[in-house]
Amino acid sequence: MNGAADVGYASIGLEAATVGKCPVAPRGPMTSSDTFSDSRSPAMSTTVVVPAAHLMTPLLGERDRYLRRIEDRFSSSSIVVRGNEVIIEGGDHVRVGRLITELVGLVERGHSLDDRSVDQAIAMVIADEKPTEILTHEVLKGAKGRHVRPKTAGQKRYVDAIAKNTITFGIGPAGTGKSWLAVAMAVQALQAKQVKRIILTRPAVEAGERLGFLPGDLMAKIDPYLRPLYDALYDMIDPEGAARLVEQGIVEVAPLAFMRGRTLNNSFIILDEAQNTTPEQMKMFLTRIGFGSKVVVTGDATQVDVADGRSGIRGLERILSGVNGLDFVHLTAADVVRHQIVADIVAAYERSDTGHG
User: Fold this and answer.
1) pTM for the complete prediction?
2) Cα pseudo-dihedral 271, 340, 97, 90, rounded to 10
């Protein structure tokens, strides 16, 4: 790969092939794909024309680092930059051309590329998905102007399922954004006046005898188990605003046991850590849903703390098959958006579980 400053005709690009008296097919407005052949060797090439010079630096990365990542992934292709043209040659030239076009689209929309987002875009294009449709889908503009968006194709399917269904089950490992995106969708629904309140709940599996020695009332004892829901809420709403909503009862954060005997109308309800419910608790929760409400249930079947492993999410998809208005979305290590080592650890456990299956 060569940057714009050091590219000459020694690199076989679009213009270089033209010098060999092989005519170039007409280009489209963004991308052209041509197959050249002469007496020396065949060459396949796709050219992506970047519409503005100021997009080149964020597209290529510092010292062309993003292009190097792409070439490392598509080893059968080489990339040459000439002015505002990115020329791809080799066996994967069409797919790499699509990838570059998608990255241009992301940069045009103000998306800041980094190593992680480039890797995500590569994975999406390999899976015949469009990064411009996934990474630019805005769920919410959160606290301090932060844009909440899905970062993987699995996360996009998850938020789409939440928008479409009355009940959505998000099942997957830690770090896949299950709870965080659910809270973002809840805040978006509240702001759009689709619901009148948000209810965030978790089973407090440790809130029995083992917490009896701790000081304070019941809420003080179980508060540590609800804290992750508060953290997600503060990412979407500034702490002062969130505190006001809690005081007014518009946002309620409570243990699952507090849901018993209630009918929850016009609410966006999130049951987090549902793998730590019992089957009886899960049935109780699902039958609390009233008119005008939407529910998201999140869980990780690999982290069950409930006694005897009787998790309320195990076998639930089979039990509820055929029920309209609900969907199960399964997230995997490919959807982990924490540090890369977290994704690698989750993938290692998934491989181990498969090997023992």
Assistant:
1) 0.78
2) -140
Residues of the chain with CATH 3.30.1370.10: 4-134
First-to-final CA distance of the chain: 44
Which phi and psi angles does 79 have, rounded to 5°? Answer: -125, 130
Residue of 184, 153, 179 whose CA lies nearest to 334: 153
Q: For the residues of 20-49, what is the DSSP string, one character each?
A: TT-PPPPP-SSEEEEEE--SS--EEEEEEE
The residue with tokens 């690698």 is: 344
Query: Is the domain covering 4-134 a CATH 3.10.530.10 domain?
Result: no
357 vs 343: CA distance, rounded Å = 21
Range(s) within the chain of domains with CATH label 3.40.50.300: 140-356
Length of the chain: 357
pLDDT, tens digit only, all 357 positions of the chain:
444 433 332 233 333 333 333 333 333 335 555 443 333 344 588 999 999 999 999 999 999 999 999 999 999 999 999 999 999 999 899 999 999 999 999 999 988 899 988 998 999 999 899 999 998 888 988 777 778 889 899 999 999 999 999 999 999 998 899 999 999 999 999 999 999 999 999 987 654 434 454 455 555 556 676 788 888 898 899 889 998 999 999 999 888 988 999 999 999 999 999 999 999 999 999 999 999 999 999 999 989 988 788 999 999 999 999 999 999 999 998 888 776 787 778 778 877 776 665
Helix (H) or strand (E) holding 297: strand 294-299
Cβ–Cβ < 8 Å for 299, 273? yes
Instruction: For residue 19, count other CB atoms closer than 10 A to its CB.
Output: 9
Do 60 and 3 touch, CB atoms closer than 8 A? yes
Q: Which CATH superfamily is domain 140-356 in?
A: P-loop containing nucleotide triphosphate hydrolases (3.40.50.300)
